[in-house]
Design goal:
The protein is mainly alpha-helical. Helices cover 78% and strands 0% of the residues.
């Protein structure tokens, strides 16, 4: 005796759901394995890696001073944490590829053509934000902090606090450099228009300075170094959205032209003739 159709459908849906969970598990394991492999390859160079990331501060510190470790486990845990975060950052393209491979079968063709360049540009912009923070922001920021130290005060930064500081700055600038992608997506999704964003430019400039104040230390230099690139990247996002909007074909509703009275009568007569012929 055959099973009811409803039970077959339910079993098929259950098997499909379990299959998706298994695929998700496999891809998550690959992502974790990629991070572990990178971590294992980099950990033996943890001291050199930390020295490289500490160079912007060490190069500006007065002669005879150095960084210190106030925690008992800091000499081990701080490089460990840095190498782990670096492994995740280096594995980011592969992690996003695994995520993309999981969700791609459920996307339409036009969505796939849009997601790939957006993901690639997002990763590149995130890396550019980190590079900008390391090569531009850190020398100016640390130079300012060391210069304003009161006379007789030796600048000897704890390595744990230094790592937390630079990771926060890296994350802030990496996210801030995603401004063009966010602007483009808002316009493409129809949440707003290029003209509307351009009219609100003054409010957006104030907003990016507020974000700079919240995400950076309480000094004008670091706030400005974050806010000004965000504003420029917002303008770049507007330009990209405007270019895509110009090249985008008009929708059917925009190209629709109503029939004239004579054309409408001709269409009705044609329908009547077809109905008479069928009878």
């Amino acid at each position: 005796m055959t099973e009811p159709l409803g039970e077959n459908i339910e079993q098929g849906e259950e098997q499909g759901f379990i299959g998706h969970l298994i695929e998700l598990r496999d891809r998550l394991l690959r992502m974790v394995l990629a991070v572990i492999i990178l971590f294992a390859a980099l950990f033996s160079f943890s001291e050199e890696i930390f020295s490289y990331f500490a160079q912007p501060l060490l190069a500006l510190m007065p002669e005879g001073t150095s960084m210190i470790a106030t925690g008992v486990t800091s000499p081990f845990l701080v490089p460990f944490k840095l190498v782990l975060m670096l492994s995740v950052l280096l594995a980011l393209p592969y992690l996003l590829y695994q995520l993309w491979s999981f969700i791609a079968p459920g996307l339409y063709k036009h969505e796939k053509s849009l997601v790939v360049p957006l993901v690639v540009s997002s990763v590149l912009l995130f890396y550019c934000g980190i590079a900008f923070a390391y090569f531009v922001v850190f020398p100016l920021l640390f130079g300012f902090f060391i210069a304003i130290a009161p006379e007789g005060v030796s600048v000897m930064t704890d390595i744990g606090q230094y790592l937390d500081f630079i990771l926060a700055i890296f994350f802030a600038f990496g996210i801030a450099f995603e401004m063009p992608v966010a602007t483009f997506l808002l316009v493409h999704a129809g949440a707003t228009t290029v003209e509307s964003l351009a009219e609100k430019r003054a409010y957006i400039i104030v907003g990016v300075f507020v974000i700079g104040m919240l995400l950076t230390p309480p000094d004008v230099i670091s706030q400005s170094l974050l806010a000004i690139p965000m504003w420029l990247l917002f303008e770049a996002g507007l330009i990209a959205a405007r270019m895509v909007q110009k090249n985008k074909p008009q929708d059917d509703e925009d190209s629709y032209q109503p029939l004239s009275d004579d054309e409408m009568e001709a269409e009705l007569d044609k329908i009547d003739d077809e109905e008479k012929a069928e009878k």
